[in-house]
Amino acid sequence: MQLHNKDPSQVYLTSGRLAYERVKTMLNISTNKNAVFIMLGQSNAVGYATLMPESERIKTPLKNVFGLTRKNNLSFDNNELVWTPYTSGDTILGEENDHTYSVSNCLAQLWQNAIDEGKSLPNLYIITIAIGAQGVTEEYMWNPDRPKKLIPGPLGVADISLCPLSCHIFSLLDDSFRKMGKEYEIIGLHWRGGEEDMCVPKEKLECELKQTYDRLFEKFYDNLAAIPPIVLHKIVCNKRVMEIDPSGKRLESMDYINSVFSILARENENISLFNVQNAPYYDSTLPYDGIFKDGDLHFTPETNRWVAKTILESYIESSRR
Q: What letter does residue 33 receive in the DSSP assignment?
């Protein structure tokens, strides 16, 4: 799927599934290799404010899905990754916020369910790195030029340089599979962040945002020793942004951030865009569009489940071709 020479307003894909049509063409996805899914970002990558009830928490470790716990992997000093059977607790490298309806947790359970139902899927390895309220511009923890720092804890305590942490984790990925004697492929590096940069005036973003994302992704590529498919999630919290800032300044910044995402997708064959407004729950006539928690910038559990389901269905569909 070619996104070159398109007007930026037309670049957004009509569904998450189409993003994986492009990935299939590039990577020749095969169920013969172990699948690696990466989720990076801020609070919507964490699944903030969507705590699972006891009955839905993944407490019994999954058989075919694996993750990286903070206990064994949240460090700049470790020289190998420690994969453990997946649970919904202790699986975010970043803030301590467990048992949420994050996309990663939803995908883990859906993937295992599909295997248990007889679907021919490889084992899935999930990496989630995120802290709420952290953008990529200079004052935030995702900034690629931020010096190494690692103070663990919940939101408000955790102070972690997320780009260096991600690069460190990525640099160990290839060796971890080599030691296991397994082949793998990255089925998607999803970026579900950037909202905090709406606090930065558009004029400042125009001077630095595109270059900052270019540097961030180049660092990822260098440490992965590969150029994986990247999926940027469009920021669509227009109504709540206008409630927070009726002047429209933050909305201008949000629109500019989305335009940078469009440019990145247009300029890079490995980058696609995901529009959550294609969820069946989306209804623009509702106060929060049917996809956000009331009065909040955070997606509902149902919306996150739909995103995870779309990722899984797109992978299954692509692997058949």
A: S
DSSP string, 225-249: TS---EEEEPP--HHHHHHH-TTSH
**Angstrom distance (rounded) from CA 66 to CA 84:** 5
Q: Which of 151, 155, 148 is nearest to 196 (CA)?
A: 155
Q: Which residues form the domain of 222?
A: 8-319
DSSP, collapsed to helix, strand or coil, labels residue 187 as strand
Give 253-312 pLDDT, tens digit per residue. Answer: 999 999 999 999 999 999 999 999 999 999 999 999 999 998 889 999 999 999 999 999
Give the Cα separation of 222 and 171 in Å (integer).
8
Give per-residue pLDDT as tens, 264-281: 999 999 999 999 999 999
| Domain assignment present for 3 | no
Q: Is 129 helix (H, G, I), strand (E, B) or coil?
A: strand
Residues 6+ apart with CB under 8 A from 77: none
Domain-located, residue 265: yes
Distance between CA 94 and CA 72 in Å, rounded? 13
Q: What is the pLDDT of residues 3-17, one digit of tens each?
A: 223 333 333 333 344
Supply the CATH number for residue 145's domain. 3.40.50.1110
Task: Provide the strand spans (E) within 74-148.
Answer: 83-85, 93-94, 124-130
Is 103 part of a structural domain of the chain? yes
Domain count, the chain: 1
CA distances to 3, 113, 128, 166, 198 from 65, rounded to whole Å, are 33, 10, 13, 20, 35
pTM equals 0.91
Asked if the structure places residue 300 within a domain, the reply is yes
